[in-house]
Amino acid sequence: MAFFNRSDELVALDERLSSARAEYFVLYGRRRVGKSRLLLRFGERCRQFYFEASSGSRGDQLEDISAELARFTGTRLA
Fold this sequence. Notes:
Elements: H1 7-18, H2 35-43, H3 58-73
């Protein structure tokens, strides 16, 4: 899939990553403009945990993200 016109956003994310401070970065925009693709491309540059919630109950989502975190960290669920 093509990746166009996101160099400014990648630079902003790189600056946050290299900062010595803890930072909170909010990424928002209209549907289907490439937000997820931008985060995935940025994640190729560093170790990342990416989770996209699906529809379902809070319990289902908590179970899903817990399983993904366990897989990502190589630990077992308690």
